[in-house]
């Protein structure tokens, strides 16, 4: 008697397995690699990505490009997700602790390396000082979210400025806003998540309170005034009555402030965001040295200066941040990859069996980085790699590709550095992703569930009720 077949998967489920499936997964990952490999290094090319809404993005940052790709293949999508979690970057730098003056010089050289492959590379000398100043203003925690980049249309790149404080675009305002002062010295700042909105009244009219909510709204405004705050920021709307109320008392107000800007102001100026005005006191108010509203290009911005805690730019900011946080460094430009490749090839000769082939293949794969740097720069990759192999065999540990002179050079002396932790994370993520893809021998794709649409009106059987 034949055994009864067991139906495990629903009808329409696709299953791919065995060697063809493994080859398909590897091929999909190779397509992902081909999409970003030409962006590597200072001579890397840019990619133009257009999303489903027609928004175009030009970038040569591998992490940004992978984030914008709408990947469908399961294995390739898994690879992209792993890389996104680890946030692998091509460039990152660190230096050992030094005195402030010497450290600043090293940080500027590190940031210069990071900006050389960006769209603002022609202005990198200008932005390097801005980036280093911004990171060195942070405290020992070096929180990246404390650094914000605001983009304003109009003007030249050199018109950019560093604000030693918080800046955000002026929010929507009601009539009466023009009567409010636009500059304060040593003001107290109230940060609220409260709606301060009343119905507008006509000129020379009186406010008649009909409900408890209207009365409470007026009381809220009085409590804010009595707290001593001169600048009032709220995540929720601030109406025209409240705007004129504050203007009559020489107070500044802004409603619908983005949550990110409100939190950054709180972290920088102190205080805390209140959900009720009943708890307003000196302990929950923030402070800054100067607050003012200024015209920048075609927009008006609110600035908070001198805080008490005293991409294209994101990569450079990350570099200087890592520079201060970490205390270990390796040379970039393919130097560390060539040294690791040499070490693994020597080690593979001491390992018996098939493991020797695996270690040798891993060592060979590490040479892809300097090889791709040469290809992107238009160099003879075979000639450069032969020089690097010979130099590393003679204990030239930090020798890598010299982009400027089409040769090899000691990249440690040339300030082409990378933090050791970043390289460790990159190699670990790449190894884990490879092991994951190779270990998958079957892909099961469930069919998309469909819901039967209700029958259209008038399509049923039978006759209608007689009238």
TrEMBL record:
It comes from the Eukaryota. One of its GO terms (cellular component) is chaperonin-containing T-complex. GO terms for molecular function: ATP binding; ATP hydrolysis activity; ATP-dependent protein folding chaperone; unfolded protein binding. Coiled coil: none annotated. It is found in: Cytoplasm. CDD domains: TCP1_eta. Molecular chaperone; assists the folding of proteins upon ATP hydrolysis. Known to play a role, in vitro, in the folding of actin and tubulin. Heterooligomeric complex that forms two stacked rings. PANTHER family: CHAPERONIN. This is T-complex protein 1 subunit eta. It comes from Mandrillus leucophaeus.
